[in-house]
Each structure stands twice: as C-alpha cells, then as structure tokens.
Amino acid sequence: MKSLTNQMMCLVVLCFASSCKKGTDTSASEASTTLKIEASTTTNINNDALLKLVNDTRLAGCTCGTTPMPAVAAVTWNANLASAAIYQSNYMASIKQLVHTSGKGETVGDRAKAAGYVWLTVGENLAEGQTTEAQVFTDWIKSESHCKNIMNASFKEMGAAKSGVYWVQVLGAR
After folding, report:
1. H helix runs in 8-153, sequence order
2. The whole model's pTM is what?
3. Beta strand pairing status for 67-69 and 62-64?
4. In the chain, pLDDT over 70 holds for what percent of residues?
5. CA distance 9 to 58
6. 8: closest CA among 142, 93, 101, 127?
7. Tens of pLDDT, residues 14-46
8. Which residues lie closer than 8 Å to 147 by C-beta, 6 or more apart?
9. Three-class SS of residue 32?
10. Which DSSP string do the residues of 6-29 spell out, in sequence order?
11. Of 155, 150, 156, 154, which is closest to residue 127 (Cα–Cα)?
12. Helix axes of 47-60 and 133-142: crossing angle, nearest 10 degrees
C-alpha cells in the first residue's frame, strides 16, 4: 500500500471571496476562455456516500492536524462542480499525475466556471490510489490542508469524481 505521502502529494488550491472574485482568476490562460464543460451527474463514484462522509464530519467538527475545526454547515451536491471534477480527474488519468492545472493551464476556478458554476470561492482536493470513497475521505481528513478545505465554512456545495486511480473533490460557493 502506498504511503499517505505518496497518495496525498498535492497542493490545496483555495480562493476566498475576499481575495479571488469570480472572473478574476489571473492564472487562467487565454485558451481557457473557450473551455466548456457540460454538467453531468455521472461521476464514477458513490456521490451520496462521499457527501455523507463530508457532511457528517462538517456537522460534528474535527481536528485538522493540530487545528481544532468547529462544526460547520453541511454542503450540498452540485452537478456543475462534479463536472469540473470529472474533467480534471480524466485529465490526471490521461497524464498519470496529480496536478491542479490542466494541460492548457486551467485552474479549478476556470474549470468550475466552464462547467457553469458562477463562484465566489472555490477549492480543490486531489488524491491518488484509493479504491473507495471511505478511503479517499479518510486520507483527505488525515491531511491537515485537505481537511481544512473540507471544513471550510465558506464552501456551501461540492462535487467529486474519480478516473482510474485519480480523485478530485471540488468545493465552492456562489
């Protein structure tokens, strides 16, 4: 079994309403302005199971690393965010690598927007190698930065997807 470090090697991308407004994602390439992602509810995962794990933890509160995180409101499933997750998980599977940007340099904000999600804040968790929703969630919660992303009260909705061994969770608020 891969070590947690190998499974979770990625950066957490967060944009908060105060610092990253819709349409001001300056890392986007010009090519990303034509990106269009169709909304889909087919994600190759058990959406309900992952959403329940996330919400049970959000509603109870938890400790992320050494940081106590208070209980926060539950998130709802969003097909547009799931579509952004599908797009990135398929891309990562095609290049066999965990990355937060696509081949054209699109960020999670670009992908959410292209999927029709008009966001105020958006974030992304990635993982590699887990076979179940419970495994990927457990690994995300064991990682302080991923856990803080899940417990971020600014996020109101989520979507997620898996392609091959690559998982993507996108959290956001409109």
Report:
1. 47-60, 79-95, 108-114, 133-142, 144-150
2. 0.79
3. antiparallel
4. 76
5. 23
6. 127
7. 332 222 223 333 333 333 345 677 765 566 899
8. 62, 64, 65, 69, 140, 141
9. helix
10. HHT----EEE-TTT--TT--TT--
11. 150
12. 30
